[in-house]
Every structure is written in structure tokens, then in C-alpha cells.
Design brief:
Number of strands: 17
Helix content: under 10%
Strand content: over 45%
Structural class: mainly beta
Number of helices: 1
Shape: globular
Amino acid sequence: TTTTTTTTTTIQPSVCPVSPPLPAGTVTFATVLGDFDGDGNEDGLLTYQAGVDDWRLRIVFADGGGADSAVAEGEDFAPPRPIGGFDIDGDGAEEVFVTVGAGASTVLVGFFDVAACVATRITEGGSAAAFPVGASIGSASGISCPGDSSINRNFAQYVADDVYEGGFAPYLLEGSVLTVFPGDGAGFTADEAFALAVLDCGDLTLP
């Protein structure tokens, strides 16, 4: 006799209020998925323009509730775009990753912590955290997530010939605050420096 067991996930009614529909014609950027409340179900993440230079992110939880939050750096020339989620601090709920700006050769990545139906911008040193990812002839910057409640800012600066100097700065996440700790300095070749210029957090990719 063969017994087949089927496991289903029951989604309970939302404890978060349902977000109102966006007005017709609202500029939005595609929904990506992540488990932002740690319930084991995939939630949706999108960004949208609520007004002139007023960009917001919206989380649509799997149970039907929602959470909206302002993305202060939003500009028409570099509107914030959703990236997805990664559990930086190991609490079972993924932090939100969103682009919050861009330069000629870099993209700035910002982070949000989600708790009690509210998405709170993660800060570092009292200001909204925004880490660059990208490279130019003179420098390279990237982000990595080692999975130990920290997130690393990686960087290299051109010195001479094929020599770059830089290192790795680890930040510990507690709640919605990042605290930097002493990192390791390092020397790099050009190829090694440019290899730092990535977002290396799970399967996240820049939009």
C-alpha cells in the first residue's frame, strides 16, 4: 500500500490593511517576489510614482495586505526599481532591496526592513543607507551578503598600472540600523577589482 501525503500552505486573512488601487496611468516598475514577512509565502514588491519626485515602494503580502513606503531619492531620471529580497539578518524575513539612484557607471542600492505592516528604510550613521554597485576605469564598488547577519560593501580604487587598493567593509544589521565594523584592506588587479562590482546576495540581480 502506498500512501501519498500532500502538503498545502494555508494563507490566513491579512493582519495588514489592503493597499488602495493605484490610479490609472500610474508609472510603475515590475513586481518582483520575496518573503518579506517571513511567513513562508512569496510577497510582491513594486515601485511606483505617486507625484513629482515622489516615488514609493509597495509590498503586496501573500495574504492580501499591503505596505507602502516613500523612497526619498526617487528622481525622474533614475526612478527607483524593485530588486527583490534577501534575509540579511537571518530572522526569517527578507529585507527589501531597491535601486535608489544611479550615476554614469554605478547604481545605488537601498534597503528596507519590514515589520508590523511597515517598511522602514534601513539607515547607517543616521542617514538612509545606499551602497553603490558598478565600476569605472578608476574604481569599483559592490555588495555581498555572506549570510551571517551582515552585508558587505566592497570597493577598490585605482593606484597605478594594474594595481588597485581597497577592501571589504562589513555592516551588521540590527532592526533597521546598519553598523559598520573594521574590515579588511586588500590589493587587487584590475580584473579582481572589476569582479567586485556586482550585487552578490542570493539570486538577486540588478534591474
